[in-house]
Design a protein that fits this description.
This protein has 382 residues and is an alpha+beta fold. It has two domains: 12-120, no CATH class; 138-378, BirA Bifunctional Protein, domain 2. It has 13 helices and nine strands. It has helices spanning 17-20, 25-44, 49-60, 66-75, 80-120, 138-151, 166-169, 208-216, 257-272, 332-337, 354-362, 369-372, 375-378; strands at 156-157, 163-164, 201-202, 221-230, 242-252, 278-285, 288-297, 321-330, 346-353. The chain has a seven-stranded mixed beta sheet, with helices on both faces. A two-stranded antiparallel ribbon has the order 2-3. The longest helix has 41 residues, at 80-120. Bound molecules: zinc ion (ZN). The site of zinc ion has 7 residues, from loops.
Length: 382
């Protein structure tokens, strides 16, 4: 009586058909059907590459796989009358196992692809990532305002080196070596290799570009020079060792003091608004003669010296005027350094402190905020 089934024989593929009591073609077919169902069932559980590999080795592994056992134990020792049917069914079984392996491999590939899709999926309905692009620094904005005003009345913008020689920073500007004004500009000198021909320093003002421009260009000259300057100042609310200037220079054959004050007055009204007034006071700079200090009527109290709520205006301290910057007619001695004929040409120059101007215009009371890069400050000037 035939009883050889998978369920009641342990490892049937390790036994021969005779040992299993299989003698007819029907019994052979039944054996293979059960084996095939077992393989089908195991294949369905493959969900990871390691389980796939276990399955592959167990069923079609070359040495000890079930397929190899079936060939070895069922086919080879089979009786002559069964051999043909066993060989035939075994071939089908081999193809079937290969199909199962291929399907399982494809299934894993699809799973891996789906996992990658999930990982990399872009959900277009989600809100985007906001990348703030920032804005120009207030100092840069004020530079731009000043450049726009001067360009509109015929000046060009030039820039110069921040590392200068003492000749351009001092001597050619009529500041000889032992001139006391150099004390105000106590300077950062660069450490140079021994034997360097010329000392170098960080420019203390943008004025060296007056010389560099006039060396290159014959009159008429109308330029402004925006840039950074350096002085050995200790940082406090109104001082910084680096700050910003705009140098201005106009030289031609017929420039008068009236052109000079008119230009400055035009600039100040454009910058602060038409209601402000300007005035100048005599002053001293080595490279201008005569030299003046320009004042503007306090833009905060309307030049009254009195705050809106009564009391003294805190910005001008009741003076009604605020110092703006120094300027003057170019000293004829300077023309000598650039081969201009001092008898034929005349002109004016000015040096505007940008930080100070920005503080005045926007009511900022500490110059340090320009350099601290605190976004809470920067955001106020988009
Ligand atoms: Zn005031």
């Amino acid at each position: 009586m035939y009883l050889a089934t998978m369920s009641n024989v342990e490892n049937p593929t390790e036994k021969t058909l005779a040992e299993l009591g299989v003698h007819t073609p029907e019994e052979v077919t039944t054996l293979f059907v059960e084996l095939r169902e077992k393989a089908n069932k195991e294949q369905r559980w493959i969900d990871k590459p390691d389980k796939f590999e276990q399955f592959r080795v167990k069923w079609i592994g070359r040495k000890s796989g079930i397929l190899a056992q079936v060939t070895e134990n069922w086919l080879k020792p089979a009786d002559v009358d069964l051999k043909r049917i066993v060989g035939q069914v075994l071939n089908e079984f081999r193809s079937h196992l290969q199909r199962l392996v291929d399907q399982a491999q494809q299934g894993l590939d699809v799973r891996a692809g789906q996992a990658a899709d999930v990982r990399e999926r872009v959900d277009l309905s989600l809100p985007g990532v906001i990348r703030p692009i920032g804005s120009h620094h207030l100092i840069r904005q004020v530079f731009q305002q000043i450049e726009d005003i001067f360009v509109s009345i015929g000046f060009s913008v030039v820039e110069g080196p921040e590392i200068e020689t003492p000749y351009y920073n001092f001597e050619a500007l009529n500041i000889p070596e032992f001139h006391p004004v150099r004390d105000d500009m106590d300077t950062f000198y660069l450490e140079l290799p021994k034997g360097a021909a010329v000392p170098l320093l960080l420019r203390t003002h943008t004025s060296p570009m007056q010389i560099r421009t006039m060396e290159k260009q014959k009159p008429p000259v109308r330029v402004i020079v925006p840039g950074k300057v350096y002085r050995r100042d200790n940082p406090d609310a109104t001082h910084s060792f680096v700050f910003h200037q705009v140098e201005g220079l106009a030289v031609d054959t017929d420039i008068t003091f009236c052109d000079f004050t008119g230009t400055i007055d035009y600039f100040v009204k454009q910058f602060f608004g038409p209601s402000v007034k300007t005035r100048f006071r005599p002053s001293y700079f080595p490279f201008t003669e005569p030299s003046v200090e320009f004042d503007v009527s306090c833009p905060f109290c309307g030049g009254s010296g009195t705050a809106a709520g009564g009391g003294t205006c805190s910005k001008c301290k009741g003076a009604a005027w605020i110092e703006l910057f120094g300027a003057g007619m170019v000293d004829p001695a300077v023309y000598g350094f650039v081969n201009y004929d001092a008898k034929k040409v005349s002109g004016f120059a000015f040096g505007i402190g940008i930080d100070r101007l920005a503080m005045l215009k926007y009511g900022i009371d500490d110059i340090q905020v320009f350099f601290q890069n605190d976004v809470r400050f920067l955001r106020q000037f988009p």
